[in-house]
Amino acid sequence: MDRTRLYRDGVLVRENFPIDDVSECVAEPGAVVWFDLCAPTAADLAKISEELGLHELAVEDALHDRQRPKLDTYDSHLFITVYAARLVEGRIELTELSVFVTENALVTVRDGAGFDIEGVLRRWDANAAMARYGVAYLLHGLLDHIVDGYFEVLQPLDDRIEELEDELFDGVDGDLRVRHRQTFELRKTLVQFRRLAMPMREVVGTLLRRGPETVDPVLIPYYQDVYDHILRAAEWTDSLRELVGNIREAHQNQQGFKLNEIMKKVTSWAAIIAVPTLITGFYGQNVPYPGSGEPVGFWVSTALIVTGTALLYRAFRRRDWL
Fold first, then answer.
1. Segments of 39-173 assigned E as strands
2. What local confidence, expressed as pLDDT, does residue 172 receive?
3. What keywords is this UniProt entry annotated with (predicted)?
């Protein structure tokens, strides 16, 4: 459902009115309008574009998904593309939001209902007195809610990586193929998440650099706080991706160590088996030699086999090869 709000002099005076009334509300002195469109059609955006004077390129970007997070500046408004994220069964679900920012209107365009727009409204209402700063405050609440959602995605991923580390070093038995697949999927998820977290830093950084032109000086610390949160999310993402890489390397090293242990045991037993093979082969020659055809030859060969294998077994055990 499309949502609308009208603030007059920082006070919420009207809510959930028809979008057709937006042009009248925007014309009111001291009025700030917000309205949200969920999966709008080209005709819906064309109508809004005419009423607010939106640039055709910005409208085109809002209609086409998979845009890069960015901030574009036009004569009468700003156009921002951001992504909200949530973790569902170990996978990141993204909701693309296109945001039009004019002097007295904030327009959010969502490509689906996956974004918690009610959470944004609660954030605005929690500090309603700040609404007197107009569109800049509404934009801050929206961006802050999106960035806070990034931490809700990263924390479960961090917990899962810690579980993989514990399984790795605690010697928990399991299918190595499953572990390799899990680490691969985690790394893929983190790479995907980094692609949207890093550009968000540029978006908020650009808003801060524009200064009073876009953001009231009173709100600068609030935007700076959002910027710091984005930096934390980006750094956290990089550290988790590095940890996943380390886990994969540790898995491979463990496999190499296990292979070396197996090879040492196989080599040790092959050397032990070679002793009786050598001695029996010697005593099995078809030529006369001392003890040939006599009981003493049997006992000498048996003694040599037992002594040789015992000495080799003891030597390999000492070196922890068996």
1. 70-73, 78-88, 91-101, 105-110
2. 53
3. Cell membrane, Membrane, Transmembrane, Transmembrane helix, Transport
